[in-house]
Amino acid sequence: MIMTSHPRFSSFDLLRASLRGEPPDLLALAAQWKRDYGDFVYWNLFPYPAYVVSHPDALHEILVEKADAFQKPPIYKTALSRFLGNGLLVSDGAFWRRQRKLAQPAFHHARIGRYAETMVSAAQTMIAGWQDGAPIDAHAAMMRLALEIVAKTLFNADIGADAETIRANLHIIQRETLVIASSFLIGLLPAWFPIAANRRQRRAIRALNTVIARIIRERRASGVDEGDLLSMLLLAADDGQPMADQAARDEAMTLFMAGYETSSNAMAWTWYLLAQHPDAEAQLHAELDRVLAGRPPTLDDLARLTYTEWVIQESLRLYPPAHGFGRQAVRRVEIGGRVLPKGSIIFIYPYLVQRDARWFDQPDVFKPERWADDLEKRLPKFAYFPFGGGARICIGSAFAMMEMRLILATIAARWRLRLQPGAHVKPEALITLAPRGGLPMVTERR
Ligand code: HEM
């Protein structure tokens, strides 16, 4: 049943939170409203009407059938584009189509297959330095690993000492962006406006720009076509025009940010879930021992690592790193039988839909085996969509699925990770869904 209601929380509450410098917990609010009001919640987000939409059929209308009636919402343009420029995640229309076409070949199956060895060897190098029984922050470890993989595969760059600069500044940017974006009023203030969030965000963007500019400069200077994404971005020309430096910088920043934050969060949640479910962990280990028999995984092994894939799918169901995203109606449009005025903002939460008991039995329970017998095909479309859907579906979904399965197989074949005693792990819903304050675990050699 599709219901509408008018929660009292308003854009002024968001403004108050921003002025206190706190990112508001929009996910918790949306969860409460879905429980109280259903699949279609109206919210007066002055100056726009807003809706939290949680029914798969309505989501199919928004993301596929009537996708031409929607664009990315204004907060993407005001707050996100301050650091992503007009990169793929935030651009719209003809410019987006051209950029997507130029970047797409770097993500074709044949090409990403070549990245498998780099992914496995980065994971092997990381675990070669692990000590039995040592405490680690598994979230930070997964971030370093995913960052190194993105840099090597897509940019053929060794980021070495810059890794920490990138990681720390991207975190600052995420937090401050949400503080800024959470109030449209502040989001509409210029980037130089002297509030603390703006200052911190600007400093972090400058630090990242320096790193990205160096990578682009070195590649332009070498003039070598490395056959990777960066070469494609710099040399790409579907209409005889190579991509301008600014556009290449925007896409590079977008791919760095989108390409490592998400997969590293997914990996962190996967370790967390496995640590709490010894039965699932034992099944995973049995599969890895049987298929790999002690050797590192290869691309060809993936087809036989079925349980490994279910573990990742189930982790993406319970903790989708892109827990929520949005759209804005560019014209009056009918969705789920109701007319939404032009300008309406839509909030879409894979996190909420994927934990809905109408589509998933025992929705809050981690059960990788639920994915047996092609569950994904039997579900309504958009009951499970960790990578979004329609034309704007994640460009890196195949890359990420391969990466996560290979990392899990490489590490879990040799190590298990246990939660540190007394660790309290809580999700923090910024732009992505991460464990708040890290993931304290202990390494244990298998
Ligand atoms: C577990 C890993 C990942 C998850 C859960 C994820 C999720 C998503 C989602 C939900 C969207 C759609 C957003 C929307 O419709 O507004 C998206 C878009 C995007 N993702 Fe991912 N992503 C992941 C990994 C990656 C990787 C590895 C890359 C690149 C290397 C990447 C690059 C992008 C880009 C560029 C877009 C924008 C695409 C467009 O609009 O044309 N993502 N991602």
Descriptive notes:
- With about 450 residues, the protein is of the alpha+beta class.
- It has one domain: Orthogonal Bundle (Cytochrome p450).
- The strands form 4 sheets. A 5-stranded mixed beta sheet has the order 1-2-8-5-3, with helices on both faces. Strands 4-12-9 form a 3-stranded antiparallel beta sheet.
- A hairpin with a 3-residue loop joins β10 and β11.
- The longest helix is centred in the middle third of the chain and has 32 residues.
- The protein is globular and about 60 Å long.
- The structure holds protoporphyrin IX containing FE.
- Average predicted confidence as pLDDT: 88
Q: Hetero groups bound?
A: protoporphyrin IX containing FE
Rounded Rg: 22 Å
| Top-tier CATH class | Mainly Alpha
User: What's the arrangement of strands in the largest beta sheet?
Assistant: 1-2-8-5-3
CATH level-four homologous superfamily name: Cytochrome P450
CATH architectural arrangement: Orthogonal Bundle
Taken together, the total number of domains comes to 1
Oligomer: single chain
| H/E element order | HHEEHEHHHHEHHHHHHHHEEEEHHHEEEE
Shape label = globular
Structure annotation, total helices:
18
Distance N to C terminus: 49 Å
